[in-house]
């Protein structure tokens, strides 16, 4: 048998056919099979290594631990920085880009080069980075590392190429944005303050140029010192020494006054005519006490002072400032407009906020129309144009983390009608009261070329479903027991099984319950059915125990010695026997359109112990069956007839065919399956057999480890049209069961085909003891036909059970059955079964159960997730290992095609949420608030540039407002000056080389070149070079056109002015 198998697999077997010495396949007892060996299969495999490459596609959700915020008012692009060094760039829906600093240092501040397609980031490692946003994948052009000083604040004036950088020592440096080199012009702290001052003013917390004169720079120090620095004269115009620390400052657009926020919760207004003291000090939230003093308030961390054209009153928006005695009050954003004060309470602490204004010019009326508020775990935009200040409806999925994510499921190639249906139902349950205006962050361009583009780049919330509505709320007396048994939410979701074709959804909860939902477009008033059952474990002894304990050879399997009572049998816990974990509502419930609960299955307490959590689940709509397993056994439920077909311990499933010859010892009492209606309930937190604790547990299927195992968990379930016996000639409905000991059982079923008989006659489930063996816990089972094509499970076409009856169109079940025997006339009878465990993958031929191919996936680690997926019109096995490797294997030959160390340091969140799907796609929860989608398809990586949105769109910069001749004559216009004359090398000299180090960036091109690989690498590099050249030519053309337009406009205005003044006398001006 071994010799023939080697001949059959000579060209494609990746490892020895029988590793470890354990029987790779065979009869129920694990001995070699005597069934006829199948003829050699001639399957043409088309997948090669060149078809695979790992690449991140897009990230969804609010950035985790955000730190900074910036907005380009012309391009209308928003940037969010995070503590992990990430930068999210958001525009219109579909324009969503994530960038990452290699250092991982926190982003302190963001500054857009307005309408230039560039962004400056200041990081906690005292490095400035210039990002190029004119390409779909932004990249760093330049970096500047400060060696001796720490960066605290940055300011970039509009249409300037000189960046002001404030430091912790109180100095202000100036950086040329084009060359990213320090200027020799430095504003030293000891020159900014008076010589008589004995204390250091502290770090620079604010920098801004005067709207009235760009040659004047306002510098705010943390201690409360404010300096107006004359850049031309290199001296101070005035100094202000205030008693309270300064957190921020904001100018009036006329440049005659500015406002500061302080640590005592006050706002101070200063006029440039008299800087001896503020002309107004207010405590917006501080009340006057009886003794005449103001009550102490929290610091106002930021203030924005903006004027409006339609109102003489300005907008003053600030965060913080509440009094300390209001304990427990949520974070607030205060909007002051005239005498009206509006306080907006936020769900999370405020990180930063920005006012969105109509003009980018600081010396014009700002006209704010919205305020963007960045929270620790959310991101909201408030409409300032309406008196009630409603928020805009966020088009991005920013509330993924509304409750902690516990599991994910990824479905591709869904029926085309399912998304519009889910969206229409979900839209009815959306919150109201949103602003009716369009989303203000509308920059960038994104066009849907085909459905694949939408599939890759966009994510939209369709529907929300709360499983807790199925159960009664716990009474006050049950709170103690709930805290004792459940460390987390008792309704937490552990697994999801969804059939898109039949629209049936199954949800597994942490409290050992399963809820089955059906989709309906109509309301329903119904009573939920409930099934209660035991799944008990048999105490077993291994062959090594029987050698030393001959007294256990009694055929009954019971020990002749009386067993000691259960430790909990005499405790109050024994009163909890035969009760479920949660109490299902026992009354008629109105169910709105959408997913409506039809059946609840709950496991019961046994011997004073809570039920073990469910570890595996599968649903088949064509069969009308639901299978679930845990570390004690297996249950099969007929959800059409609301009955339990099978409820057995894992050991009982083998019968006499147990390959390890384990014997039953003292089975627990009351082992039965029962169906009931309702009972009081509660549950327990995960046990040592849970999936999370199995992440770091050593695995082995050797007999020595089995001696130590007391539980054999059901780890995977799969309904399929297959062969339950070697002698079968036609496929029948079967349930494949995989266990934690690396064993696979096949359970055939007899299901009536007639619709009426199916609802009345019982379904027969008969375990046959058929066993296949692998190393490690079984993770995934898939099926291929003899041509190598993926066999999909049969399903039922969706029908609305609550729709009104039509005499002409009776509602009948329509089944779609992908039977292997009906589609393989050319390839012969039979099919292939692909079984993947934590360490090994095998391909079996059915019905003979002969092992055709074997591959040892890993020896030093173990597989966390595996799936049989379709890629490039073919099929492969995709695996994600605990050491962070992503692998793909060809099918059926199991040749390694890809092995990339993608995530070297995995954590439990990634291990729990990582999942594959068809089309070379996968996703995982990269942080508690973000979902990262990736692709392992080379074709997808090559086309990703065309699928992503454009961040930069060529837009003409709006012209500055003409303020009139009289204002200019009397000095009302802002004064301009040439910064190049002051800060250039010719005037200011060179900065010290030891102060900062310039690091040239890759500009995006080299990084993309390094990422390109395979056969298409050269073509990709050539295309990138052409794109770069075309981009530069396009920029040159744009600048030339803008210069021509500006020249024509100037000539026109000069000619009009000449004609207007031609015939006027001098006294007429």
Report on this model:
This protein has 1069 residues and is mostly beta strands. Helix content is 13%, strand content 34%. The strands form 16 sheets. A 5-stranded antiparallel sheet has the order 6-7-8-9-60, with no helix packed on it. The chain has a 5-stranded mixed sheet with strand order 29-30-31-36-33. The chain is elongated and about 110 Å long. The chain starts with a helix and ends in an 8-residue tail after the last helix.
Give a brief description.
By secondary structure, the protein is mainly β. Helices cover 13% and strands 34% of the residues.
- C-alpha end-to-end distance: 111 Å
What fraction strand? Answer: 25-35%
Major pleated sheet = 5 strands, antiparallel
Radius of gyration: 35 Å
Please count the helical segments: 16
List low-pLDDT spans. 1-38, 449-456, 479-485, 540-574, 666-709, 820-828, 1004-1017
Class by SSE composition: mainly beta
Q: Average pLDDT across residues?
A: 80
Outline: elongated
Number of strands: 60
Quaternary state of this entry equals single chain
What percent of residues adopt helix (DSSP H or I)? 10-25%
Give the strand order of the largest sheet, numbering strands 1, 2, ... along the chain.
Answer: 6-7-8-9-60
């Amino acid at each position: 048998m071994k010799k023939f198998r080697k001949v059959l697999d000579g060209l494609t077997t990746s490892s020895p056919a029988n590793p470890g010495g354990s029987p790779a396949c065979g009869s129920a007892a694990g001995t070699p099979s005597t069934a006829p060996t199948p003829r050699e299969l001639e399957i043409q495999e088309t997948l090669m290594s060149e078809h695979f490459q790992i690449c991140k596609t897009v990230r969804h959700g609010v950035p985790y631990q955000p730190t900074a915020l910036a907005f380009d008012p012309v391009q209308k692009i928003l940037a969010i920085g995070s503590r992990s060094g990430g930068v999210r760039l958001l525009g219109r829906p579909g324009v969503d880009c994530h960038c990452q600093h290699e250092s991982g240092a926190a982003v302190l501040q963001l500054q857009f080069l307005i309408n230039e397609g560039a962004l400056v980031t200041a990081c906690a490692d005292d490095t400035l980075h210039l990002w190029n946003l004119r390409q779909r994948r932004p990249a760093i052009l330049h970096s500047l590392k400060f060696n001796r000083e720490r960066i605290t604040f940055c300011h970039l004036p509009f249409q300037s190429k000189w960046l002001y950088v404030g430091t912790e020592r109180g100095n202000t440096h100036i950086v040329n944005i084009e060359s990213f080199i320090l200027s020799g012009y430095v504003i030293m702290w000891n020159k900014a303050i008076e010589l008589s001052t004995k204390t250091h003013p502290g770090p620079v917390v604010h920098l801004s140029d005067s709207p009235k004169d760009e040659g004047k720079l306002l510098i705010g120090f943390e201690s409360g010192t404010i300096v107006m620095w004359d850049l031309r004269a290199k001296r101070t115009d005035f100094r202000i020494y205030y008693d309270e620390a300064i957190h921020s400052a904001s100018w009036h657009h006329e440049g005659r006054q500015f406002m500061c926020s302080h640590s005592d919760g006050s706002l101070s207004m200063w006029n440039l005519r008299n800087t001896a003291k503020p002309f107004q000090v207010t405590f917006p939230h501080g009340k006057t006490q009886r003794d005449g003093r103001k009550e102490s308030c929290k610091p106002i961390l930021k203030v924005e002072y903006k004027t409006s054209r339609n109102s003489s009153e300005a907008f003053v928006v600030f965060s913080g400032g509440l009094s300390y005695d209001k304990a427990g009050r949520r974070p607030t954003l205060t909007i002051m407009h005239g005498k009206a004060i509006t306080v907006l309470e936020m769900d999370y602490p405020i990180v930063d906020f920005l006012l969105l204004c109509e003009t980018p010019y600081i010396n014009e009326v700002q006209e704010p129309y919205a305020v963007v508020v960045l929270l620790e775990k959310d991101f909201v935009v408030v409409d300032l144009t309406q008196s009630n200040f409603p928020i805009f409806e966020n088009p991005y999925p920013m509330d993924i983390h509304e409750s902690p994510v516990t599991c994910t499921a990824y479905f591709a190639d869904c029926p085309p009608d399912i998304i519009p249906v889910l969206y229409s139902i979900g839209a009815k349950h959306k919150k109201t009261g949103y602003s009716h205006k369009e989303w203000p962050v509308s920059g960038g361009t994104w066009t849907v070329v085909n459905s694949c583009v939408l599939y890759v780049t966009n994510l939209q919330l369709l529907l929300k479903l709360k499983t807790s509505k199925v159960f009664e709320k716990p009474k006050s007396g049950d709170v103690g027991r709930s805290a004792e048994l459940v460390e987390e939410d008792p309704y937490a979701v552990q697994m999801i099984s969804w059939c898109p074709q039949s629209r049936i959804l199954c949800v597994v909860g942490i409290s050992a319950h399963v809820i089955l939902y059906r989709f309906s477009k109509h309301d329903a008033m119904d009573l939920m059915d409930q099934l209660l059952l035991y799944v008990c474990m048999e105490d077993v002894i291994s062959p090594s125990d029987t050698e030393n304990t001959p007294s256990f050879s009694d055929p009954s399997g019971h020990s002749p010695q009386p067993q000691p009572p259960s430790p909990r049998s005499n405790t109050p816990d024994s009163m909890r026997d035969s009760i479920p974990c949660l109490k299902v509502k026992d009354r008629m419930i109105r169910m709105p359109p959408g997913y409506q609960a039809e059946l609840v299955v709950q496991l019961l307490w046994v011997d004073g112990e809570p039920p073990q959590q469910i570890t595996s689940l599968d649903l088949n709509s064509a069969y009308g069956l639901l299978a679930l397993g845990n570390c004690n056994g297996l249950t099969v439920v007929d959800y059409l007839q609301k009955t339990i077909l099978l409820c057995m311990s894992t050991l009982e499933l083998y019968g006499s065919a147990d390959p390890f010859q384990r014997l039953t010892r003292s089975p627990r009492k009351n082992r039965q399956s029962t169906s009931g209606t309702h009972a009081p309930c509660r549950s327990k937190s995960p046990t040592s057999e849970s999936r999370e604790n199995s992440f770091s547990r050593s695995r082995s299927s050797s007999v020595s480890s089995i001696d130590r195992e007391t539980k054999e968990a059901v780890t995977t379930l799969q309904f399929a049209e297959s062969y339950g016996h070697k002698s079968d000639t036609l496929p029948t409905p079967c349930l494949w069961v995989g266990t934690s000991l690396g064993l696979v059982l096949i359970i055939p079923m007899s299901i009536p085909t007639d619709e009426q008989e199916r609802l009345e006659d019982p379904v027969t489930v008969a375990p046959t003891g058929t066993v296949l063996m692998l190393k490690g816990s079984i993770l995934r089972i898939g099926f291929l036909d003899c041509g190598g094509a993926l066999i999909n499970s049969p399903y039922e076409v969706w029908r609305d059970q609550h729709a009104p009856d039509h005499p002409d169109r009776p509602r009948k079940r329509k089944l779609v059955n992908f039977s292997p025997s009906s589609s393989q006339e050319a390839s012969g009878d039979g099919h292939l079964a692909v079984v993947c465990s934590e360490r090994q993958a095998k391909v079996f031929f059915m019905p003979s159960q002969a092992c055709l191919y074997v591959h040892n996936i890993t020896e030093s680690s173990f597989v966390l997730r595996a799936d049989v997926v379709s890629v490039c019109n073919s099929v492969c096995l995709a695996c994600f290992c605990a050491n962070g490797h992503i692998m793909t294997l060809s099918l059926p030959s199991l040749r390694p095609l890809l092995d990339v160390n993608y995530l070297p340091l995995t954590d439990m969140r990634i291990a729990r949420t990582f999942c594959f799907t068809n089309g070379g796609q996968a996703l995982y929860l990269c942080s508690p608030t973000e979902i990262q989608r990736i692709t392992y398809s080379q074709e997808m990586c090559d086309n990703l540039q065309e699928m992503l949105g454009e961040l930069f769109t060529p837009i003409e910069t709006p012209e500055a407002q003409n303020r009139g001749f009289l204002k200019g004559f009397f000095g009302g216009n802002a004064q301009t000056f040439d910064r190049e004359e002051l800060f250039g090398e010719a005037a200011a000299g060179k900065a010290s080389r030891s102060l900062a180090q310039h690091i040239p960036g890759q500009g995006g091109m080299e990084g993309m070149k390094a990422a390109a690989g395979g056969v298409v690498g050269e073509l990709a590099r050539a295309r990138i070079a052409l794109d770069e050249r075309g981009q530069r030519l396009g920029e040159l053309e744009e600048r030339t056109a803008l210069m021509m337009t500006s020249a024509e406009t100037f000539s026109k205005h000069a000619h009009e002015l000449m004609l207007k003044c031609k015939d006027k006398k001098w006294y007429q001006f």
